[in-house]
Amino acid sequence: MEQNISVDEAVKIGVREGIKYIKEQEYYKTKKRYDRRLRNTRLLLKHYRGLKIHGKITDSSVNAIYEDNAIDVLDDIEAINDEEQYIQALSRTKKRTLIIVGHINKAMKYYESVCKSEGKAKERRFNIIKYIYVDVCKDEVAPTYEEAAEHFSITVKTIGRDVRNAIEDLSILFFGIDGIRL
User: What's the superkingdom here (predicted)?
Assistant: First the structure.
């Protein structure tokens, strides 16, 4: 059975397949961006405590460099340029870190008010995120899911589900439209 298709039909099939391919690529690109945002949200929460203290550390580092600079000014002019670049890099890093920490703080405050208004399950979700990622912890070690389960008197599985759901919610607050799976 030989089937003859016209050139027009072949072009239509080719165009249809091309459009289908482009749509698939767009879907995978969007999905990849969404997955990256979830991963980044988790990383921001995981490193929140360290980011918060980063500003204090960079302040003391910059001050120590300026003190050293005053002593070495006459000895080595070249070193000043390198140190100045280092100081500028530290300042940029500190600024970006403070902006990110401020953004996280505002998002968490908003998320807390939303969760409190939406019932006990959502409020628990916020409290779990706060307990695991934000609150000051003993010995600078973040609580495990098991410790959180014991603290909230729920199962580890519920902790995992609440953390996943909260990270999805927070991803939208942290990244806007890019945090939504389309």
Answer: Bacteria
